[in-house]
């Protein structure tokens, strides 16, 4: 499914931008919430690190109406970056990004409940020579945790404006707007003093750098704190600079100073002084909190899995029970519309197009909207509460066996909604090969577009069974995707993208109550996207498939609808691929569904609706697709959709790529056609093999 | 390994869940350890182990960090009296 991943457009305004302001800070400290509050945009927020992986822009107005451009940067712990998303933040702040001007000011967002750690990035920002306003966010959480922050003392120690904020409630927003609007906004006057020997080397190197004098010191410090291997990979400076850096590192080593850890230690010494004056905390944060107790259960090696599987089972149970009523409404509405068109239009191609093409094709997919909304409701809660990082933690054992670490599981979990944001979220992964492996396996996670296919096939497979049994089968399909993704990651890490398993390092966000407004907003946005897609891509494909299933018309006017379909373009295509899919137990009509859903997997349901509507003898009888498929027979009179065929089809859709939007994003993220083409090839092969094993293996074991 | 305070030291990976600990040393060589330092794993800083499994969760400066057991072997700690 498509996803709102593109850079947000700024609201149109004829006023000239007077200032470029970047929002920077640690992951999960509320940057996007402040961005949304200032710009009025709806950038996604969530309670886990890595929600924003690329810079977003929006426009806001200062306290005197002056227009300013706001850049929401991905979260970063340090300017000494470790992942592609952190590199975006560093490059913008250092003016290395050709398409983005160096910011005139930075809003440095700081989590007040975690001041010391957040001040590390502030310390680095102060070295950049750009005016800074510190947005001290979540002061309410800090107070609740027994943390007292003296704002005046903090302002004095940092030498920059500090605004106390609760961004989710809009507290401090006016003051922040005023502070950023101030003119002139002076650059920082206080920054960390490095040990004298180190400072001397930094300044010596800074003089050699071909960069603006105001950022030369910061650039030199970043170079000096790189390991040798990382230095050799630097491409934005010439070889002479790299050699000069290595020589400086060697001299520092001889003088007994570790150039890599000394700046970190110096900054934390300075942070210690700042906190001693402005930050007062009791000993409470060392006592076991409620969060710790919850973590004890949710990350337990046994109970953690029970909780994970239990939550998934509950989600699928609700998908099959709660969604049923609104699904029936949509189905009734779609049937009524089809009947109304049939009653009011004479029999013609136009009537066929509207009833068999548009209403059957689009209606067949739209009916699953309630199930998709429930999926997003649960995923929204998991994201907001902070559970995503816990799931990544319990998966670390399995992931490490595959050669990845648990952090790779967060993009995979995001792919439950849609593979596109999942693939974007791989930008938080430090290691290039691990990122590529995660991109290659992320589409194996069952996205929301697979939901209609699973629901339809489960309905055909066990029509009269309980919601619990249906949810169980759905859960099995999701788990199959997860385990095959692990298996393929294992293969890729050993054969294709060999490399060391990286060491896990992941911040666990605090547990928070979900923002019901945020969850509702995301459900609204996703339903809008789904409906837009239904009204564009799925509508266009439905019309095309109807035309392919209707033309050319048979020369014999007495031909049965089935014979007419067989000799149509779609029928011919289905027959053409029949030899390849016959071993899977499929006939040419299912073949039409497979071809029709190549660009978007949910179109399979619409295609089946069109195929069976076009073929229907009695246009007055609008039987549910499920019943039509259940009654479908092979030439020998045996049922077409046997349990093995139904399960095989579900397995096929668990493993097949069938999403052109994902292909486009993989192309963009890997900057090559090689990987998306490889992905289509391996996933299609895997899907065929999976369905083959189910069908032929099942028959060998005596099933049908 | 012994510190000046003569308290026994061990790695964070081997510490018990719930123990209140103090960081003694961190390996200086690997990039992950630099990030650990940047996250506040400084010498003498207090840390508490919250959960243990294939990876470790520890509480430091009011935040929780999950780190792999292998990375936990790079951090030496000593127990602080309760």
Automatic annotation (TrEMBL), chain A:
Keywords: Cell inner membrane, Cell membrane, GTP-binding, Ion transport, Iron, Iron transport, Magnesium, Membrane, Metal-binding, Nucleotide-binding, Transmembrane, Transmembrane helix, Transport. InterPro entries: Fe2_transport_prot-B, Fe2_transport_prot_B_C, FeoB_GTPase, G_FEOB_dom, Gate_dom, GTP-bd, P-loop_NTPase. One of its GO terms (molecular function) is GTP binding. It holds the Pfam family FeoB_N. It is a multi-pass membrane protein. PROSITE patterns: G_FEOB (PS51711). The chain crosses the membrane at residues 302-323, 358-382, 436-459, 471-492, 530-549, 640-665, 677-695. This is Ferrous iron transport protein B. It comes from Chthoniobacter flavus Ellin428. The lineage of its organism: Bacteria, Pseudomonadati, Verrucomicrobiota, Spartobacteria, Chthoniobacterales.
UniProtKB/TrEMBL annotation, chain B:
One of its GO terms (molecular function) is transition metal ion binding. Residues 10-79 form the Ferrous iron transporter FeoA-like domain. Pfam families: FeoA. Keywords: Iron. It comes from the Bacteria. This is FeoA family protein.
């Amino acid at each position: 499914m498509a996803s709102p991943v593109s850079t947000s457009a700024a609201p149109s305004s004829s006023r000239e931008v007077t200032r470029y302001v970047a929002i920077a800070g640690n992951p999960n400290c509320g940057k996007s919430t402040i961005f949304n509050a200032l710009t009025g945009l709806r950038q996604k927020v969530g309670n886990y690190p890595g929600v924003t992986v690329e810079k977003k822009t929006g426009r806001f107005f200062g306290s005197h109406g002056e227009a300013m451009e706001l850049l929401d940067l991905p979260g970063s712990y340090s300017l000494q970056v470790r992942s592609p998303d952190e590199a975006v933040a560093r490059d913008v702040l250092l003016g290395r990004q050709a398409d983005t001007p160096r910011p005139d000011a930075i809003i440095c967002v700081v989590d007040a409940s975690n001041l010391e750690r957040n001040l590390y990035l502030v310390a680095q920002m102060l070295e950049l020579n750009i005016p800074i306003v510190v947005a001290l966010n979540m002061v309410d959480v800090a107070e609740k945790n027994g943390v007292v922050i003296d704002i005046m003392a903090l302002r004095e120690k940092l030498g920059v404006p500090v605004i106390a904020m609760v961004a989710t409630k809009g507290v401090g927003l006016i003051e922040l707007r005023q502070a950023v609007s101030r003119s002139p906004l002076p650059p920082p006057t206080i920054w960390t003093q490095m040990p004298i020997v180190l400072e001397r080397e930094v300044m010596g190197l800074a003089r050699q750098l071909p960069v603006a004098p105001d950022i030369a010191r910061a650039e030199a410090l970043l170079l000096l704190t790189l390991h040798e291997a990382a230095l050799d990979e630097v491409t934005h400076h010439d070889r002479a600079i790299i050699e000069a850096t290595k020589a400086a590192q060697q001299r520092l080593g001889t003088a007994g100073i570790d150039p890599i850890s000394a700046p970190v230690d110096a900054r934390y010494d300075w942070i210690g002084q700042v906190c001693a004056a402005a930050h007062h905390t009791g000993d409470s944060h060392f006592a076991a909190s409620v969060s710790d107790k919850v973590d004890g259960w949710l990350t337990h090696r046994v109970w953690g899995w029970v909780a994970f599987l239990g939550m998934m089972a509950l989600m699928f149970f609700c998908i099959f029970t709660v969604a049923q009523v609104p699904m029936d409404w949509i189905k009734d509405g779609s049937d009524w519309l089809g009947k109304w068109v049939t009653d009011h239009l004479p029999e013609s191609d136009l009537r066929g197009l509207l009833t068999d093409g548009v209403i059957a094709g689009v209606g067949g997919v739209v009916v699953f909207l309630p199930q998709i909304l429930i999926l997003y409701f649960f995923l929204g809660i998991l994201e907001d509460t902070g559970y995503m990082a816990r799931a990544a933690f319990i998966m670390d054992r399995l992931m490490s066996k595959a050669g990845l670490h648990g952090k790779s599981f967060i993009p995979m979990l995001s792919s439950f909604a849609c593979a596109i944001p999942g693939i974007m979220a791989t930008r938080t992964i430090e290691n290039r090969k691990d990122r590529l492996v995660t991109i290659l396996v992320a589409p194996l996670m069952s996205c929301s577009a697979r939901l209609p296919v699973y629901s339809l096939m489960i309905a055909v497979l066990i029509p009269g069974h309980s919601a619990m049994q249906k949810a169980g089968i759905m859960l099995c399909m999701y788990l199959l995707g997860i385990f095959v993704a692990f298996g393929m990651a294992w293969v890729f890490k050993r054969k294709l993208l060999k490399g060391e398993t990286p060491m896990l390092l992941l911040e666990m966000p605090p547990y928070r109550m979900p923002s019901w407004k945020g969850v509702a907003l995301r459900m609204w946005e996703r339903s809008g996207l789904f409906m837009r897609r239904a009204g564009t891509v799925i509508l266009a494909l439905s019309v095309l498939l109807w035309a392919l299933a209707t033309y050319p018309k048979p020369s014999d006017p007495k031909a049965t609808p089935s014979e007419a379909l067989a000799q149509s373009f779609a029928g011919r295509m289905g027959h053409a691929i029949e030899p390849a899919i016959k071993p899977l137990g499929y006939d040419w009509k299912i073949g039409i569904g497979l071809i029709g859903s190549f660009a978007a997997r949910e179109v399979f349901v619409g295609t089946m609706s069109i195929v069976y509507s076009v073929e229907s003898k009695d246009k007055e009888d609008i039987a549910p697709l499920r019943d039509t498929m259940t009654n479908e027979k092979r030439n020998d009179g045996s049922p077409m959709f046997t349990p093995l065929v139904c399960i095989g089809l579900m397995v096929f859709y668990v493993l097949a790529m069938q999403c052109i939007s994902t292909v486009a994003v993989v192309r963009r993220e890997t900057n090559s056609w090689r990987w998306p083409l490889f992905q289509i090839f391996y996933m299609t092969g895997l899907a065929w093999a999976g369905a083959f094993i189910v069908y032929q293996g099942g028959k060998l074991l005596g099933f049908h | 390994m012994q510190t000046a305070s003569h308290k026994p030291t061990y790695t964070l990976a081997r510490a018990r869940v719930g123990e209140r600990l103090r960081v003694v040393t961190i390996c200086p060589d690997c990039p992950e350890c630099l990030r650990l330092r940047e996250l506040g794993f400084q010498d003498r800083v207090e840390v508490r182990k919250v959960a243990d499994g294939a990876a470790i969760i520890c509480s430091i400066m009011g935040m929780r960090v999950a780190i792999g057991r292998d990375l936990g072997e790079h951090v030496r700690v000593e127990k602080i009296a309760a």
